[in-house]
Design brief:
Strand content: 15-25%
Radius of gyration: 13 Å
Strand order of the largest sheet: 1-3-2
Distance between the termini: 25 Å
Number of domains: 1
Number of strands: 3
Largest sheet: 3 strands, antiparallel
Number of helices: 3
Structural class: alpha+beta
Oligomer: single chain
């Protein structure tokens, strides 16, 4: 409810059947499988929380995100996170 936007996890505390499959695919985000999975279910924005990554790990993820610039457009960024729009 913090942002009043739809989320792929629903809102009731119950996990939809999609959750486990999507969770597994997003473990290596961003990669082809994860980006395609998000596109397939109609996700429009992705929030990446930088603070959850170990030291040095974020830079590797940031480089991978640059490879998907044609499909993930940076909309907002600050010291703790980034918001990307899926094309």
């Amino acid at each position: 409810m913090e942002h009043w936007q739809k989320t792929v996890h629903g809102y009731s505390g119950l996990l939809p059947a999609l959750h486990e499959n999507l969770y597994r695919r997003l473990m290596n985000f961003p990669d082809e499988a994860s980006v395609k999975a998000l596109e397939d279910i109609g996700v429009t924005h992705v929030v990446v929380h930088i603070e959850i990554y170990a030291a040095g790990e974020w830079m590797a993820v940031a480089r991978k995100l640059e490879q998907y610039a044609g499909r993930l457009a940076l909309e907002y960024g600050d010291a703790t996170g980034r918001v990307y729009r899926l094309h």
